[in-house]
Design goal:
The complex is a heterodimer of chains A (502) and B (505). Chain A is built from 18 helices and 26 strands. Chain A has 502 residues and is of the alpha/beta class. Chain A has 2 domains: 215 residues, 3-Layer(aba) Sandwich (Glutaconate Coenzyme A-transferase), CATH 3.40.1080; 260 residues, Glutaconate Coenzyme A-transferase. The longest helix of chain A has 19 residues. By secondary structure, chain B is α/β, with parallel strands linked by helices. Chain B contains 19 helices and 26 strands. In chain B, helix 3 packs parallel to helix 4 and helix 8 packs across helix 9. At the A-B interface, strand 4, helix 13, strand 20, helix 14 and helix 17 of A face strand 4, helix 14, strand 20, helix 15 and helix 18 of B.
Chain lengths: 502, 505
């Protein structure tokens, strides 16, 4: 670390003592990948100490996406946050958001950097960034995620760098960093495929802004996925069959189209099913998160290239990549989230998007974020920008939850993240509804017959029949009856015989 | 004309007789601008005759966007439609859609051509395209709109061309036609400015597919706008005040950013207000339709360039443009809707999107299409793609409707076209709510205090206080109480003294 002498070398505690109550702090990190680690922990400790002395201490927090164990949970447990954007996860923070203790702005991820750059988020007082190296002239080599970090480094008044020796310095070979100039003088994003690079291997910071550098040797905390359950496997099977049919019908070219997959177990099951299917040709991904299941796919030659903004990998998988950088670096590009999720590029490359919903209504509107329309789970994340601009947009969810007490197909979603105008395919363990070119009532028929669990189909049909006739049929008195039942009785249909469902 | 020596010249009735029951038919036209006129009318007549003889006859119809009164209305009155996409705005058709007599696919407009080309709608049997000229090698010079016509010409099995001699032969000087290839498209759309041209002045068709040419001489039927009332004036003033404030604070550059404005009276008023404000610098538009008020702005030098997909101009205004083509042709570019509404270009240019809406909820979700969540008005049109991808997204509407019986700010929208994640600024005649960077409850505060009509504020505040806690506070029992009251009593708040509200309307 030759440059470190040029910058103040502070302990995390010394560094956070400069961060006052009410400051806006932007952290590196997209998921736990590449998240700042030392400073958030020290901030949490400082908040607890100050709170013990009855002194107020809360900061406004921005990052790339969520960073549960590195940022969100430590700070939430210390009640150290007053504001959070653009995404979050973690049980404590979620509870604080739902109690209105923390103001949360749930945002499209690719627009975030632009809104920061243009001052829509107010002044950024501090950026706290994990890096593998910082040079005297202000080049910052980032670690396992790019996220919105380049923009934070540019806009923040003061900067703290966590140099993390755990990460491979060769990560820069994957990095492709660029900040778009403000409109209207932007040029088209010149990506021709998942691997096109247009920028630099490093982010840039004015070195005079760096108030502290500290060292660290700690891997990202990424938990392994549980093995797919029967429902996830069914969903995955349905997705793969659909993609194959589209290819045979000539609606997906023989060399396939780039895939995007959301985060989580269902997405993981789909990737597993794609791997096993010999008829799916080798493919590329244009996505926001590179997860464990993709490592094997890449080594098997099934996944030939991936564009992402983070390597969200368990320590073993990340170690495996670091041990085989000659193989992986030419096949993976890490981009700022402004580009990994760019609507224009998604549209042009014809990305097939696959995301997970909490619930779907019978007309194809999707709730991906708020239980009962009120309780936040995580947020919209990148699902909106991918779904809205995809060539084919797929939403997946199990048909029922809680042992059948809950149907994921409902008459109306009490919160809508992606609407009927953008959602094309709905998949559950029951089957698949292809909604392209269908009017609302035709969509309802497909969704109820193909996707809803049989135990809920009668109810959904009756809802339609007893509704006001219109282009879309709804009964505004009963639209949320299932949700209200669940809240009150613990079951969407209180008379349902659950034993028959198991 | 040369085409007459190569292609059969048919009467509209002859052309319509080729089109069988159940056919999928595409028409040129983006709103009424550049819409095919004679053959659709003959199809309506044919439908009436066949229905009179007890025979079935309905077609599936796709266009650029709506085709207003003369085409959609006539076909609907003849009960000649079974399916319609991607937009509509005719009263009879609307009522048929709401009675489930016509299946309607309400779509993002930029997506419609790609969806058709990809085969997601099935086979396209016929395209009927209005043009100023067609050459023997298949160049088709389109008229006042480009819309999705280039895609329809390419994908239809058979084609009819309506040559309309009414239109200026110089319209191709404005046209910039390029058909995007199927994904994965390796090259970005190289538009650097609303006036960049990247294509050809004509669309292309395989001449072997042309079944016949029909000739006509008839202007587009575009209704004039109603004069601005004081509420439209207030809304327009609030939009201008907001934009001016953004410029002063440096969040809009002093050279300004390209504007998009939705269709209709309100958008027309806002553009007029922007044009008459001396502190707003000359600007460009990257929009979908070019409406009457823009002609004047362009002549005054306030609007220096405009990109659109259709010239939606009344007969006099179009005549005026036609007689001054030396002035207008270099300042207007007409593009396929796939490009005029392209997500990447809208994002890149930093477009400021200004669109009308029906209602918004207290958390910033917007309903642009369905009354009570059930009855279609027009559709989402281009508002979704502009709102979602713009640099600044503004949605505007009067705070009440039907003399105060309806509040346009409600606890929850029963249909959501653009959601809280994409909507940034709401404007009514009472003020504007800039909700950027705010959590839901902070948004609710702003929207109720600044935008809702004072007569409804107490109700909306009480809704929140009686709702359970959460990131977003809702009471699923009462979320649609206002809508249900209206359906039952004709008033959202049955006890509201309307005279009190009226004074402020």
């Amino acid at each position: 670390m030759p440059a470190i002498e040029s910058f103040p070398h502070l302990s995390p505690e010394e560094a956070v003592s400069q961060i006052p109550n009410g400051a806006t702090v932007a952290f590196s990190g997209f998921t736990n990948a590449g998240a700042a680690k030392l400073v958030p922990r020290a901030l949490a400790q400082r908040a607890e100490e100050l709170h013990a002395k009855q002194k107020p201490f809360r900061i406004r927090v921005l990052s790339g996406a969520s960073s549960e164990s590195s940022i969100d949970e430590p700070l939430a447990k210390a009640h150290a946050m007053s504001f959070r954007a653009p995404y979050q996860s973690g049980r404590t923070l979620r509870a604080e958001i739902n109690d209105q203790e923390v103001e949360y702005v749930d945002m499209h991820l690719s627009t975030l950097p632009q809104t920061v750059l243009e001052g829509f988020q107010g002044k950024i007082d501090f950026a706290v960034v994990e890096a593998t190296e910082l040079t005297k002239d202000g080049r910052v080599y980032l670690t396992t995620s790019i996220g919105a970090t380049p923009t934070y480094l540019k806009c923040a008044d003061r900067v703290i760098i966590e140099l993390n020796r755990y990460h491979s310095p060769r990560l820069r070979e994957m990095s492709d960093i660029f900040i778009m100039p403000p409109p209207p003088h932007r040029f088209p994003v010149p990506f021709h495929d998942a691997l096109t690079k247009l920028g630099y291997p490093y982010a840039v910071v004015d070195p005079r802004k760096v108030i502290a550098v500290m060292e660290n040797d700690e891997p990202d905390t990424v938990l392994p996925f549980s093995p797919p359950d029967q429902r996830s496997e069914k969903i995955a099977e349905n997705v793969v069959r659909f993609l194959l049919d589209e290819m045979l019908a000539g609606r997906i070219p023989d060399d396939f189209l780039p895939l995007q997959a959301g985060v989580g177990n269902v997405a993981n099951a789909v990737m597993g099913a794609l791997e096993k299917n010999p008829y799916i040709p080798p493919f590329t991904m244009f996505t926001e998160v590179f997860q464990d299941s993709l490592v094997q796919l890449m080594e098997d030659g099934r996944l030939t290239a991936a564009s992402t903004t983070s390597l969200t990998l368990t320590p073993e998988k990340l170690r495996h990549i670091y041990d085989n950088m000659d193989f992986f670096t030419p096949r993976i590009v890490l981009r700022p989230q402004e580009f990994s999720n760019h609507p224009g590029v998604i549209r042009r490359l014809g990305v097939i998007s696959m995301n997970t919903a909490l619930e779907v209504d019978i007309y194809g509107n999707v709730n991906a974020s708020h239980i009962y329309g009120t309780q936040i789970m995580h947020g919209i994340g990148g699902s909106g920008e991918f779904t809205r601009n995809a060539y084919i947009s797929i939403y997946m969810c199990p048909s029922i939850g809680k042992g059948g007490r809950l149907s994921s197909i409902v008459p109306m979603c009490p919160h809508i993240d992606n609407n009927e105008h953008s959602v094309q395919i709905i998949v559950t363990d029951q089957g698949l509804a292809d909604l392209r070119g269908l009017g609302p009532m035709q969509r309802a028929e497909k969704i109820i017959n193909n996707c809803a669990h049989p135990a809920y189909r009668d109810y959904l049909w009756k809802y339609v029949e007893n509704s006001r006739v219109g282009h879309i049929r709804h009964n505004l008195e009963k639209a949320f009856e299932l949700h209200l039942n669940l809240m009150e009785t613990g079951c969407m249909l209180p008379d349902l015989d659950l034993s028959r469902i198991q | 004309m040369v085409y007459a020596r190569v292609f059969p010249v048919l009467s509209a009735e002859e052309a319509a007789s080729h089109i069988p029951d159940g056919a999928m038919v595409a028409l040129s036209g983006f709103s009424n601008a550049g819409t095919a006129k004679l053959v659709p009318r003959a199809i309506a007549k044919r439908a009436r005759e066949l229905h009179g003889a007890g025979k079935p006859y309905k077609i599936r119809l796709i266009t650029g966007s709506s085709s207003g009164n003369d085409i959609d209305e006539e076909l609907a009155q003849a009960e000649a439609l079974s399916w319609r996409a991607p937009f509509q705005s005719a009263p009879t058709l609307r009522s048929q859609i709401n009675r489930q007599l016509v299946q309607y696919v309400d779509m993002h407009l930029a997506h419609a051509p790609q969806t058709l080309q990809a085969g997601f709608f099935g086979k396209l049997d016929y395209a009927i395209i209005e043009a100023t000229d067609v050459t023997v090698d298949g160049r088709v010079y389109l008229t006042t709109s480009i819309g999705a016509s280039p895609t329809y010409l390419k994908n239809a099995d058979r084609v009819f061309i309506e040559i309309n001699d009414y239109h200026s032969k110089r319209l191709p000087e404005m046209a910039d036609v390029l058909l995007l290839r199927k994904p994965p498209r390796e090259d970005p759309i190289p538009i650097h400015d609303p006036l960049t041209k990247i294509g050809y002045p004509y669309a292309v068709v395989d001449p072997k597919k042309i079944v016949g040419v029909i000739t006509t001489n008839e202007p587009d039927q575009i209704k004039p706008f109603t004069p601005m009332d004081w509420r439209a004036q207030n809304i327009a003033d609030n939009v201008v005040r907001f934009l001016f404030g953004e410029m002063i604070s440096g969040r809009i550059p002093t050279e300004f950013l390209p504007l998009q404005a939705g269709v209709g009276n309100l958008a027309n008023s806002v553009m007029a207000a922007l044009g008459s404000n001396p502190y707003i610098p000359p600007f460009k538009m990257y929009s979908v339709t070019f409406q009457d008020s823009l002609v004047d702005l362009m002549e005054k030098g306030k609007l220096v360039g405009a990109s659109a997909s259709g010239l939606t101009l009344t007969v006099e205004m179009l005549r005026h443009v036609r007689s001054n083509m030396d002035f207008f042709a270099p300042r207007i570019v007409l593009r396929p809707q796939e490009i005029s509404d392209d997500a990447g270009v809208v994002r890149r240019l930093g477009v400021i999107a200004i669109n009308p809406a029906i209602e918004a909820d207290i958390y910033g979700n917007v309903n642009s299409s369905h009354l009570f969540g059930t009855d279609i008005v027009n559709g989402i049109g281009g508002s979704g793609e502009f709102t979602r991808n713009s640099y600044l997204s503004i949605l505007m509407f009067p705070s009440t409707a039907m003399e105060g019986r309806i509040s346009a700010i409600v606890p929850m929208c029963p249909h959501i076209d653009s959601n809280e994640h994409s909507v940034q600024v709401l404007v009514t005649e009472n003020g504007y709510a800039d909700v950027r960077g705010m959590g839901p409850m902070q948004r609710a505060r702003k929207i109720i205090d600044n935008c809702a009509h004072p007569a409804y504020r107490d109700y909306l505040n009480a809704y929140i206080s009686s709702s359970g806690p959460g990131h977003i506070r809702h009471d699923l029992r009462k979320a649609f109480e206002l809508h249900r009251n209206f359906l039952e009593y004709g008033k959202m708040l049955p006890d509201l003294d309307l005279t009190e509200v009226k004074e402020r309307i």
